[in-house]
Structures are given as C-alpha cells and as structure tokens.
C-alpha cells in the first residue's frame, strides 16, 4: 500500500519579523558603539604610553651598557632631533663622541625608531629644566643630562582631554614610572607630585 504524501510546511520570517529584528540590531549597535569607541581609545593610549616607557628603560640600559651618552628624542624624519612634538615619532641613538649634539653622525648608531603615533593623540614633555623638551640624554651612569637637575613628565592625550590622559614621570636619575593621582582629585600628578597636575 503506498505511503501517504507528507506535506512539508515551509518556515521563514515574515516581513514584520524581519523589520523588528533589524530595528533591534540597529538600536543595540547604537547603544554599544560609544562604549566600544572608548574601549579602543583606552587601549590605544595604554599601548602608546607603554611603548614610550619601554624605550625610556631601553635608553637608560643602553647608556649604562655602552658606557656613553645615549639620546632619545622626538623626530619626524628618523635621522635627527627636530621637534618637541613627540607624537611625530622618536629615535634612540648612541652619541659616540659624547658631544650630546642630538644628531646621528660619525659612529653614532640608531638603536630604535618609532613611527608617528596613530589616533591623533598628542604627546608632550614638561619639566626637565624647561630646556630641550624634544630630547632626553642619558649618561653612562643612567642619569639624565642637560635637565638642570629637574625631573620631567611625558603626557599623552587624546581628544577626551586630561581626564583620560596617561603620563610618565622621569626623575633625574633616569628612572621612569607611570604617573598616578596622588591627591585624589581624579587627575594624574606630574613630576612635582601632589602640587602639580598634568595638562593636555
């Protein structure tokens, strides 16, 4: 006896269901996008400030290991110190004649080159005696040169301003650390401690 024919029921979305689903996805995307944007900006700032603190540690170590002056400076061309805008990039090199002239020449050796920072972020130095804010030089002892015996701060900001900024404090012995909020006012303090705040 032949089997009865089974009618297959076709299933799918109606136009109304599809429109509701698309609307819900659009609403959720609108709610999540601002938070995701902040997450990306936070990670970018953290990565960039960690890169800088890493090269500062490297500079101090290379100066001690090589027993000579090592220069870390802002550079937009990768060959000499020519700006105070650290977001343009930086170079780290030896200064073989110990002249501290902040130019790669003679037997100087390029140790590190950093491309410009992405995201439109600003990176500026302050302190360090107010001179040569575009460069740091480390002696064979690891101490800073040409800073009038003053510590300094590197401040990294994006378009959200000082409230979300990151900073590095470098003392005269060349030791660096991440800046912290020392006085509890929700703003990082610079190399002057609780009496000084970073600015963008």
UniProtKB/TrEMBL annotation:
Sequence intervals crossing the membrane: 12-36
Subcellular location: Cell inner membrane
Keywords of this entry: Cell inner membrane, Cell membrane, Membrane, Methylation, Transmembrane, Transmembrane helix
Membrane is among the record's keywords: yes
InterPro entries with a match to the protein in the record: N_methyl_site, Pilin-like, T2SS_GspH
Protein's membrane topology: Single-pass membrane protein
GO biological process: protein secretion by the type II secretion system
Gene3D superfamilies, sorted: minor pseudopilin epsh domain
Chief site of localization: membrane
A cellular component annotation (GO) from this entry: type II protein secretion system complex
One Pfam family, short name: N_methyl
Source organism superkingdom: Bacteria
Entry-linked SUPFAM superfamilies: Pili subunits (SSF54523)
Domain General secretion pathway GspH per the UniProt entry, residue ranges: 49-174
Keyword flag Cell inner membrane: yes
Family that this chain belongs to: Belongs to the GSP H family.
Protein name as it appears in the record: Type II secretion system protein H
């Amino acid at each position: 006896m032949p089997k009865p024919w089974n009618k297959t029921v076709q299933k799918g979305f109606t136009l109304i269901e599809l429109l509701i689903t698309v609307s819900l996805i659009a609403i959720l995307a609108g709610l999540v996008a601002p938070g995701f944007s902040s997450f990306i900006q936070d990670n970018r700032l953290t990565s960039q400030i960690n890169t800088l603190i890493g090269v500062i540690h490297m500079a101090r170590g290379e100066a001690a290991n090589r027993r000579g002056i090592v220069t870390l400076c802002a550079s937009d061309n990768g060959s000499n110190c020519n700006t105070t805008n650290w977001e343009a990039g930086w170079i780290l090199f030896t200064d073989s004649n110990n002249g501290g002239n902040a130019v790669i020449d003679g037997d100087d050796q390029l140790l590190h080159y950093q491309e410009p920072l992405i995201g439109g972020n600003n990176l500026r130095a302050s302190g360090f005696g107010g001179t040569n804010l575009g460069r740091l030089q480390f002696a064979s002892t690891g101490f800073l040169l040409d800073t009038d015996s003053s510590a300094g701060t590197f401040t990294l900001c994006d378009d959200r301003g000082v409230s979300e900024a990151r900073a590095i404090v470098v003392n005269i012995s060349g030791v660096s650390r991440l800046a912290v909020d020392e006085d509890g006012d929700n703003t990082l303090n610079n190399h002057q401690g609780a009496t000084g705040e970073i600015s963008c």
